[in-house]
User: What shape does this take?
Amino acid sequence: MTTVLGLRCRECSRLFPDEALHVCDFCFGPLEVNYDYDAIAALTTRASIAQGPRSIWRYANLLPVADENPVSLGAGFTPLVRAERLGAELGLKDLWIKDDTANPTGSFKDRVVSVALTKARQLGFKVAACASTGNLANSVAAHAARAGMSSMVLIPSNLEQAKILMTTVYGGEVIAVDGTYDDVNRLCAELTSERPSWAFVNVNVRSYYAEGSKTLAFEIAEQLGWQAPDHVVVPIASGSQLTKIAKGFKELSLVGLLDGEPSVRISGAQAKGCSPVATAFEKNIDAIAPVKPDTIAKSLAIGNPADGYYALDAIRTSGGSCGSVSDDEIIEGIKLLARTEGIFAETAGGVTIATLASLAQRGIIKPDERTVAIVSGHGLKTVEALAGHTAPTHIIAPTLDAFDKAVGFSDPNFQ
Ligand SMILES: Cc1ncc(COP(=O)(O)O)c(C=O)c1O
Ligand SMILES: [Zn+2]
Assistant: This one.
C-alpha cells in the first residue's frame, strides 16, 4: 500500500500528482514527495521494520514507491561501526562510521537508484538514464541490468578508470562527454525534454530518487537503538543526500519511531577545489556562487549544486557547520580511516573524514557528541588519487637473510 499523497513544491507548496514531474510549473521550485504521515504511523512499528528485509526496503512505508518486488541489488543496511581508534585520534569519545562502501556497487548511490528505478518501472519507463560524477553511473548501469531495463549513462570523460569500467561492464550505453559534470547535467536537462520516455534518475524522477537517501538516517537511528545521534557529517556534491538525511530524522520523529525529540546537528563536507556550499556558509550568505571544480574528489565535483541552497538551510537550521579540505587532507583522511578502522574509502570519504577532523579540532564537534560520519563510497574506485602516496614498506629478495636485513628485530610492534 502506498503512503504517498503526491508531490509538493518546496517553494510555493502547490500540490502535484504522483508522476514523473520534478519542477513546479508555477514558480519553478523543485518538487518533493508528500506523504500521509498518519497512515505511515498507523502501519509502521519498530517491530514491523525489524521483520523487513536487511536492505533499504525495510523502510518501504517511508519510501515513495510500494512494490512487492523492488529493483534491488540489496542496497542498504550497511554497517554502523563504532570508531574508537579514529575517535581517540580526533578527540571524539562517541564516534561512529556509517560504512556505505558496503553497498552492492560500492556507494550510497545504490540507495537512491534502487528507489528511482523501482518508481520509474512502475511509471512505465523502459530506459534508465542519468548524468553522473561516477558512482551514480555505476549504480544506474547495474540496477538497470538487474531490472532488464536499457541504460543510458552520461559522465564527464575524465573520470577515474574504475568508475568508467564499473559502468561499462554492465552492458549499457555509456556516453563520455568532454566537459565537467555541470556540462553533462545541462545536456541531460535538454535531453529530458527531447526524450520524454527516458527516466533520468536525477532529473525527471529526481523527486523520487532523492528520497532513497533518507534511509541513511533511518538505518543510523535503528542501529543506535532508535535514537538519533547528536551530529552527522555528510559529504556534499548536489546537496541532495544531506538534505534528505535531515528529512529522514524528522520523519522518524513525526511517525513516532524515535526515542525523544531528535536534535541532530548536520554538518557538510566539501573539497576546497569545489566548495560552493562551504563558501556560502563561511561568508554567511544565502547565494551559492557556482565554481569550476578542480579536486581529486571527482565524485563531489559539482560546481553548481542543485540542492545547495536546501543543504545550506538544513545545516544552518540544525546548528551544524560546513567545512572544506584540500586534496592533501583528503588523502590523509583516506589513510587515517583505513589505518584506524580498516575501512578503505574513496575520495569523498576522505573529504568527510578530513572535515570531521577539522571540525573536531576547531571545537565545532564537541568531544561528547554522538557523531556519525557518512563514508559514502569505496576506495577501490579512486585508486589513482593515492598514486605516489602508498608503497610497500620494503621490496626484498625471497630469502630470510633479506627479510631480516630489511625488517630487523627491534620494532616493538612485532615482538
Ligand atoms: C561517494 C559520494 N558521496 C557523496 C556524494 C554526494 O551526493 P549528493 O549529490 O547527494 O550531495 C556523491 C555524489 O555523487 C558521491 O558519489
Ligand atoms: Zn512552486
The radius of gyration is 21 Å. Residues 80-106+210-386 form a domain with the Rossmann fold fold (CATH 3.40.50.1100).
